Amino acid sequence: MAYVPTNTRPLNTAPQQQIRLGIQGAPGTGKTWAALTFPNPIVIDIDRGLGAHQGRSDVIQVPFYDTDFVKTILPQQPYNIKDALTYWLEKEARKLEPDQTLILDGLTGLASNYHTIFKRHPKLTDRGEVDYRAEWGLKIQYFSELTDILISLRCNVILISHEAEAKEKDGTYRGKIRPLLTGQFGDQIVSKFTDWVRQLAADKPTGVVAADKLANWNMTQAEFTAMTAKYPRNTLYFWQLESDDIWDGKVSSLVGFPRYIPASYESFIKWRKK
Asked: Quick one: which of 71, 92, 179, 200 is 20 to 30 A from 233 by CA?
């Protein structure tokens, strides 16, 4: 019989990996709403995006948009949201359990905040000029390290980002929609997550949904009606899973999925590998 190293186990007996999901989309497409359908959500709120969910007692808010809150994390240092966030993740998020979901809502806002901090304390060249090349390099390094911390946590992790059309170095558009983040990191971050989807919104269907659509979503009419009853107003939120000519996504933990699925935890786990 072949030797099996100590403290190892067959892959089919290993516990299912935690969710590592990135959601990108335009403003108003329900990204936060969809993320909050996942179990026991704890939201790192950078964009003050929970206004529509104030009545929910099951959602824990970590108010990183609040200057006073940020100052309590590193009281001996000048206000610095980027360092406060990594410190909080190492001190508090490490304690989260596998059945909890940490949501970083406002990756694009965090990137903007980083740029503001740099303008206050810029790196200078030997000539005393602002070193923008250094800023780009340090910014990419920071977000890479931040992402590495997030994906190493025991809990589920969801990252929410706005999106924009990608540009070449000369400023011309290249026809691809990607996360609205600094330079090449907008492309790199997708590779760090097991799943990266694009969120879209459409008018909610009324009445009986066509059988072929329900079959495509692996849902009964009753399941679809119960799920969409929770959706705000008359909107239906979708995740695009398959890449196309304008968007490159990534789906590693789902199997046999269609191009689009309703944007919710219930829908996600229906297609998840067992």
From this structure: 179
